[in-house]
Amino acid sequence: MGNSGARLADIAARTGYSKNTVSLALRDSPRIPEATRDLIRTAARELNYLPNHVAKSLTSRETKTIGLVLADITNPILTETSRMIEKELAKLGYGTLFATSNNTRREEVAAIEMFRSRQVDGMLIYPARGDRNFEHLIKLRRANFPVVLLTCGEDIGVDMVGVDEKVGVYKAVRHFIDLGHRRIGTLDSNASEGNHEKFDGYVQALASAGIAFDPELQVSPAGYGPAAGYWAMDTLMAAANRPTAVFVANDYIAVGAVRWCQKHGLRVPDDVALIGFDNLEMSEFLSAPLSSVSYEIDILTRLAIERLLKLIAASGKLPSPRVTMIEPELAIRDSSGSAL
């Protein structure tokens, strides 16, 4: 028999042992002699026997699977993080199920419902950026379901592990100010979508140097990739008094901003300095290697997984929710330049 539909009865028939003995042997029970266990395991392999995790989950109430909801599958930072999460969970004996919300609440809710119907043990979720309404996630936590959000923000009663975006942007803009820049623009769609962390860091850094916020220097890109960055930079640099430095909310958008500068004969950083966010690998290899707000993705994923497994292991009521913030640093390269 060469298919994966082999049952305990098939292994029993092949070896001459009872189904109960076969079951105990496959669970490595010390009640079955080692030689017998080896014989039964060999037969199971030959028959392509796969343990029935659904049946096992009915007794253990664990499926050893985790649901991961990504906000945008095309975002390189989320792709990299999901790869690390899957790898880390596999080491711990967990499988990962993936879904993407395409940054919409409706698809996020559908993904969560699908994962619950699959009886995952817990979920890691990058919340959709388009809607800061977390009611469905708060309900999930109140229902005693293990969930960790991979984001930063105020405490909403759900576990969060994320990067302190406000501090990261504050450091980036202060770096520009320390280099002598006074007209500092920003390409950031987060604020218009309800996530004010990066924008607040930008405004606070300006205020710390006595620089007033100029709405003409803030542009929201219409998307999350290089094309959106290119056209947002086009709008920003059309300002009557254009900026000499620009903070860009992610490196992927910054790729487009660098390209716009090339296309229009502006030298980076001599004519306009740039700093991105996320420190993607590609950033180092742009025509002007990009300075960026940097953090360790592996630390972020490890902390999120550790917290989720702690919630899964809790018997009875889940422990009080916790918000864990990672403080980012600056990776300084050519694009931010030296003092004016």
UniProtKB/TrEMBL annotation:
<keyword id="KW-0804">Transcription</keyword>
<keyword id="KW-0238">DNA-binding</keyword>
<dbReference type="InterPro" id="IPR028082">
    <property type="entry name" value="Peripla_BP_I"/>
</dbReference>
<dbReference type="GO" id="GO:0003700">
    <property type="term" value="F:DNA-binding transcription factor activity"/>
</dbReference>
<keyword id="KW-0805">Transcription regulation</keyword>
<protein>
    <submittedName>
        <fullName>HTH-type transcriptional repressor CytR</fullName>
    </submittedName>
</protein>
<feature type="domain" description="HTH lacI-type">
    <location>
        <begin position="6"/>
        <end position="60"/>
    </location>
</feature>
<dbReference type="GO" id="GO:0000976">
    <property type="term" value="F:transcription cis-regulatory region binding"/>
</dbReference>
<dbReference type="InterPro" id="IPR010982">
    <property type="entry name" value="Lambda_DNA-bd_dom_sf"/>
</dbReference>
<keyword id="KW-0614">Plasmid</keyword>
<dbReference type="Pfam" id="PF13377">
    <property type="entry name" value="Peripla_BP_3"/>
</dbReference>
<dbReference type="Pfam" id="PF00356">
    <property type="entry name" value="LacI"/>
</dbReference>
<dbReference type="InterPro" id="IPR000843">
    <property type="entry name" value="HTH_LacI"/>
</dbReference>
<dbReference type="InterPro" id="IPR046335">
    <property type="entry name" value="LacI/GalR-like_sensor"/>
</dbReference>
